[in-house]
Amino acid sequence: MRPNIVVGVEDGESMYKKWYFEVIIDHIEQVTHVQPHIRIGWATTHFQPSPGHGDGFSSNGIGDNTYSYGFDGQNIWFAGRAYDVSNNDTKQVGFKKNDVIGCLLDLDIPEMWFSLNGLPVKGLIREFNLTGMFYPAMSLSSRVSCRYIFGGEHGRFMHQPPEGVASLYEAMLIKQKVCIEPCFSFGNIERNCLNGPSHIQHNIAFTPQPVRTNHIILPTYLENICDKLAANSHELWCMNKIANGWRFGENRDDIQKINPCLTLFDNLPIEEKQHNLTTTVENLKSLLAFGYHIGIEMKTDDRRLKYIKLPNTYVQSNSYKSQPLDLSNVILSTKMDELIELLAENTYNVWAAARIKDGFTYDVSDNPHHKRSPYLLPYSIIDDSIKKINRDIASETVKTLLSYGYTIDTPTGDIEDLNRRNKDVKNNEPMSNYRTYRAEKTFAVTRGKWYYEVELLTSGRMLIGWGHASNLGAFYPLGTDSYGYSFDGLNARRFHHNTYDRFGKQWTKNDVVDCMIDLHDKTISFSLNGELMLDNYGNETSFDGLDIDEIGFVPAITSFNGQKARFNFGQDIHSLKYFTSCGLQEGYEPFCVNMSKNATFWY
Fold first, then answer.
1. Domain containing 509 — which CATH number?
2. Does residue 259 contact residue 272 with C-beta atoms inside 8 Å?
3. What domain range is 492 assigned to?
4. Residue 477 shares a structural domain with residue 574
5. pLDDT tens for residues 504-515?
6. If we measure between CA atoms, which residue out of 439, 586, 442, 452 comes closest to residue 520?
7. How far is CA 482 from the centre of its chain?
8. Residue ranges with strand state E in 164-243
């Protein structure tokens, strides 16, 4: 069992390096002649426990392979070997009720040690592999109950962790809810519910990667605009500050909302002025680094530019009143909106990289004194208010350029493909991100017309369909090779032989996908909630010209991280939701008609 909290280490990333949690033994009962199994420790995202004997080297417990490390009260377990670390003055064998186990992970050294009821054991683990993310884990036999303690509102520690070590709850996301789940689970097999791999929040270990600009040299015709961009950015900043109740004063006071920078751009302290100019230059370089081109269409009379007219309430004690450009009439195209999103994310990554370089690390709460920040997260999952700030800055830069008569040309195809990171779906998915199931070969069909339903318990990515029982493997998503035929309702497309094309429409949670195979006409069709899905040409057939062998076809599914689905093969024909409206009239039969037992699945 594990919580949904992970920690890790990588050069230039935002994760803190020292973590601690505790476990309390609530109940332990011996039900056979064998001692109860309890191991508590850490595992990595590469840890794949086998649910039984056979493939997977029967690694059923924490410490049975090289991707997990466990403590059982007497031994530290790693790679299937036990190392005795019990204290000489104790005769305790294993854990007993109310024992408190402390687990510390130091990713700097690296080092891992355990304590029992506040006393460190005499052995520890050092120089272990840091590949992957680490999470707390425990393996238990029946009639054993344990409780995780992560600190803060997630349980007060029974024993104080060493100085400089963070409570594990500090690695959580701000709005994250803790849940304890199995390290490996197929789902509720008795009810034909199959799950994909458990979703782990890998991106908590954030390594900002701003676009490289050290090779970019600004053209001469852009040097003059830098001061204007920086000045207008300052005017906008002052306007927003004054609107929020700030006022000018010689000495800064955040409580009284006093700031000495509420003045003309030329009157700013040299450090502040240089910072604004540097930021402006970096924004222009980033724009060029993304492949955009800035052209000249200079206005001859800057007096035609409109400025925002603010009321006299904006006048400060130093007689300064903000006067930024009026950018409300500047209309941006869709391509410019894409540029703004790129610049906003890059601005955030530049800020995050600078904070990490200054020694800041991620924490669920803000603590500048200890250099901990809750904002050091990937741009995709940060709070919308932070995104808005960065988008506004990027939008002001682009609109100001256009207001002064400059043009911005979008990249050509090759450059555009290079810079649109993480937008294309990759077919080469890591195997830890998905799980492919197929029905057992003995259920394969070689003739006739067959039907089954899949109820979507989640709305994420799944590949649902049919596969050749003789050659379909579990190593790749369904449809990657020539032996699988699938429908991807998250993206509304079909998938076969590693080729996607548009098909049908998108599904949502609780929808029902109807899967039909006609082995006489050699076709596969899909419907969603009883409505046949069509391709771009209006054809109801999803796949045709099937290559039928003597082994036959079986239902199959690839379920990605965190996804769940329930199969209905029609043992009880009345339980099928849409068979009468789509399937029965066409001569299809339920896949498990006249069967009393559920179909067996392999993965």
1. 2.60.120.920
2. no
3. 433-602
4. yes
5. 999 999 999 999
6. 586
7. 30
8. 166-167, 180-181, 193-195
Task: Output the CA torsion 469→475→481→487 (10° steps).
Answer: 80
| Most confident by average pLDDT, 62-66, 121-125, 210-214, 464-468 | 464-468
Q: Among candidates 473, 416, 464, which has minimal Cα distance to 560? A: 464
194-206, pLDDT tens digit by residue? 998 877 655 566 7
Domain co-membership, 179 together with 275: no
Structural domain contains residue 27 = yes
Q: Distance between CA atoms of 528 and 111, rounded to whole angstroms? A: 52
**DSSP 3-state of 551:** coil
Q: Are strands 100-106 and 111-116 parallel, antiparallel or unpaired?
A: antiparallel
Same domain, 179 and 228: no
Average pLDDT, the chain: 87
* Same-domain status, 57 and 168: yes
266 lies in the same domain as 399: yes
- Asked whether residue 292 falls in the same domain as residue 330, the answer is yes
Non-local CB neighbours of 454 within 8 Å, separated by 6+ positions: 464, 512, 513, 515, 557, 565, 566, 567, 568
What sections of 404-502 are H helices per DSSP?
413-419
pLDDT surpassing 60 at residue 480:
yes
Average pLDDT score over residue span 541-553? 93
d(CA 539, CA 543): 10
- Residue 55: predicted pLDDT: 46
d(CA 544, CA 525): 9
Query: What does the alpha-carbon distance between residue 322 and residue 303 come to, in Å, rounded to a whole number?
Result: 17
Domain match, 17 and 137 both: yes
C-alpha to C-alpha distance for 259 and 234, rounded to whole angstroms: 13
Write out the two tokens for 360. 């800041």
Please tell me the total count of domains within the chain. Answer: 3
At 225, which amino acid appears?
I
Answer yes or no: do 387 and 446 share one domain. no
- Name the domain boundary from 134, 166, 185: 185
Would you say residue 200 lies in a domain?
A: no
Burial of 459 (0-12, 13-18, 19+ CB in 10 A): middle
